[in-house]
Amino acid sequence: MSFAGAAAIEGSLEIAGARGGDLTTAIYTRLFAEFPETEALFVMDRDGQVRGAMLAHVFETIFDFIGERRYAHRFIGAEIVTHDGYGVDSGAFAAFFGVVRDEVRSACGSAWTDAMEEAWQGLLSDFETYTARPVS
Ligand code: HEM
């Protein structure tokens, strides 16, 4: 299965990386502003390693989903269950992908295109089908 907007998503991530550098701090700042209740979950993560590892998994999941799609859908399903154990409900879990999109868009600035907007919108709605119900 291939994802129609794969090139636009990849392009946006490349530009965001080139313009914005490491987006980790910006993404978590946005997450904690929009979902203040999630900040306390990371109090033990003093050096930011867990946040960095989690975000790396999120990007890998996106790349797998728009590419070979070897595991992304199952991984999302499994992580929803794991995160439920951390006290993260599936709505907040799903919203994280939107937070990433918003920060990528902001880092791209004037280089953000309609094709990128459409591709990310498609990706987020596809993810919703996995986050809205348990994945077998
Ligand atoms: C608002 C959304 C989210 C919140 C609040 C959240 C919260 C957390 C927390 C608190 C941990 C650390 C657990 C611990 O070690 O005690 C964690 C780890 C992790 N999260 Fe999330 N998460 C969110 C979304 C996601 C998403 C969308 C993914 C992937 C698709 C993901 C993947 C992971 C992974 C793989 C780890 C383990 C990282 C490691 O230590 O290697 N999370 N998350």
Report on the architecture of this protein:
This protein is an all-alpha fold and 136 residues long. The chain has one domain: Globin-like, CATH 1.10.490. The chain has six helices and no strands. The protein starts with 5 loop residues before the first helix and ends in a 5-residue tail after the last helix. The model has no long low-confidence stretch (mean pLDDT 93). Protoporphyrin IX containing FE (HEM) binds next to helix 3, helix 4 and helix 5.
Brief summary of the model shown:
The chain is 71% helix and 0% strand. Helix 1 packs across helix 5 (90-108), helix 3 runs antiparallel to helix 4 and helix 5 (90-108) packs antiparallel against helix 6 (114-131).
List keywords for this structure.
single chain; 136 residues; mainly alpha; Globin-like; 6 helices; binds protoporphyrin IX containing FE
Write the layout of secondary structure elements.
Layout: H1 6-20, H2 24-34, H3 49-66, H4 72-86, H5 90-108, H6 114-131
Helix pairs in contact: 1-5, 1-6, 2-5, 3-4, 5-6
Bound molecules: protoporphyrin IX containing FE (HEM).
Question: How many DSSP-defined strands?
Answer: 0
Helix-strand pattern: HHHHHH
What is the fold named in CATH at topology level?
Answer: Globin-like
The CATH class turns out to be: Mainly Alpha
| Beta-strand share of residues | under 5%
The domain count comes to 1
**Helix vs. strand class:** mainly alpha
- Mean pLDDT across every amino acid position: 93
**Low-confidence parts lasting 5 or more residues at pLDDT below 50?**
none
Separate helix tally: 6
